[in-house]
Amino acid sequence: MSDKRKIRVGITQGDINGIGYEIIFKTFENPEMFDICTPVIYGSPKLAAYHRKALEMDVNYNAVEEISDIEDFKLNIINCNSDEVHIELGVATKEGGNAAYEALERAISDYQNGMIDLLVTAPINKNSIQNEEFSFPGHTEYLQERCGNENKSLMILFNDCVRFAIATSHLPLRDVPAAITPELLEEKLLILNKSLQEDFCIDAPKIAVLSLNPHSGDNGLLGKEEIEVIIPTIEKMSKEGILCYGPFGVDGFMGSGKYRCFDAILAMYHDQGLTPMKLLAMNDGVNFTAGLDIVRTSPAHGVAYDIAGQGKADENSFRQAIYAGIDILRNRTRYHEARRHPLQKLYFEKRDDSNRLNLQQEEKD
């Protein structure tokens, strides 16, 4: 992020047969959005024009071929697709998936060249987008491969009152128990704790860890993962300074309102976290890919084929994704700037005094 220019938000068009363009257009109908960022849509002016006509929206945009041609205070669209691409609103097509992939690849290339500062992705169809280059269950895994630099990613969904992280992300339910290992939970807790500090400005975050089995396994009656894996991991990480607690059964934990007492919650699998999250925050929830250098957010909903092209889509989740991405980028920048040149330690801890005295004596001798 350069101090000399406005924050550039790269926006991928997502599945062209869904509601991606609608929520983008509705978000930037508000001219105040251009005061906080310069939006760069990776997609197609032709496809954008199709959606604009179908939605009967009066939206102006700046069609360009290269990011060097974008302008501030305009909705810029970089052409990433062939003019021969066809739209079938509300239908999952391979052509639509390929168009989404081409836009995503172009956005990542510009990010890696320092041309955009963060990425906000419109929803994709995870099946349609599959090809020889994209063989991932979602954006999270793709971004880890393309931008991870050997770092691991973590899916966090949040709004103003709750944050859910998902330990096993996009994984079939039958494979979850075997995937819940001490190594995995340690890795996810470390990423989550670091993200809460750097990206959300929480100095000493408190993390709740959910159980895998009903009633936290009932002391092994309903499963032994809690006894053998989850509880020992919580105890180990607590000794290492991470404030993590549990395991909690998700039904009682959410029903009693205990989630309000924690800065984040680590769920064991996808639906365990996303179901309560979307009940609380379907219209303002944000999906954030933590753990990577790139800041990537997205709305908490999918392609919504059933309402595509009808003008019924709620853009608030997408708008919050833009706000959140900018906030996280700024928080992370401030966090690292504050620690870039630490002052020399001007005191000695008590446990080090003996060594200090020995060194001073050696110097005298």
Explain how this protein is built.
With 365 residues, this protein is of the alpha/beta class. It has two domains: 1-151 and 292-341, 3-Layer(aba) Sandwich (Isopropylmalate Dehydrogenase), CATH 3.40.718; 152-287, 3-Layer(aba) Sandwich (Isopropylmalate Dehydrogenase). It contains twelve helices and twelve strands. It has helices at residues 20-27, 33-36, 45-55, 94-112, 139-147, 176-179, 182-198, 225-239, 250-255, 270-281, 316-338, 353-364; strands at residues 8-12, 38-43, 62-64, 76-79, 118-121, 154-158, 163-166, 206-210, 243-248, 264-267, 286-290, 296-299. Strands 3-4-2-1-5-12-11-6-7-10-8-9 form a twelve-stranded mixed β-sheet, sandwiched between helices. Helix 8 (225-239) links the parallel strand 8 (206-210) and strand 9. Helix 7 (182-198) packs across helix 8 (225-239). The longest helix is centred in the last third of the chain and has 23 residues, at 316-338. The relative contact order is 0.15.
In short:
By secondary structure, the protein is α/β, with parallel strands linked by helices. It has 12 helices and 12 strands.
List the helices and strands and how they pair.
Elements: E1 8-12, H1 20-27, H2 33-36, E2 38-43, H3 45-55, E3 62-64, E4 76-79, H4 94-112, E5 118-121, H5 139-147, E6 154-158, E7 163-166, H6 176-179, H7 182-198, E8 206-210, H8 225-239, E9 243-248, H9 250-255, E10 264-267, H10 270-281, E11 286-290, E12 296-299, H11 316-338, H12 353-364
Parallel strand pairs: 1-2, 1-5, 2-4, 3-4, 5-12, 7-10, 8-9, 8-10
Antiparallel strand pairs: 6-7, 6-11, 11-12
Helix pairs in contact: 7-8
